[in-house]
Automatic annotation (TrEMBL):
Domain DUF7344: 13-84
Domain of life: Archaea
Organism (species): Halosimplex carlsbadense 2-9-1
InterPro entries to which the protein is assigned, alphabetical: DUF7344, WH-like_DNA-bd_sf, WH_DNA-bd_sf
The protein's name: DUF7344 domain-containing protein
Pfam families listed in its UniProt record: DUF7344
SUPFAM superfamilies: Winged helix' DNA-binding domain
Amino acid sequence: MTDDVDDDLDATFELLADRRRRAVLQVLRTAPRGALELSALVDAVATECGEDPDALASALHERHLPKLDDADVVEFDREDGVVTYDSHPLVERCLDVVQSYRSDEWMRGSSKPESK
């Protein structure tokens, strides 16, 4: 692998390391035109993560959305209060793996080592 590929992987894994950011992207992937108003996004992510929307709103607004925006994975329009996701190939592949990992089909096919 080249250094650029490794750098891209490192950056993508860092972005997706937080479950809230993964939830933001999962929600936006299924949103019409990949865009949602911030309040709707907060509610959907709070439901996905099992968190209080009021507490989550600040974390998304101040930390997670700017990080995703800085990485050019989402467009966070603070003025209009809209977040837009336009498919990012490496992020998409990683999110597909996450969905596969969570699926019942994957769980039935996995084998966990027996504890001794």
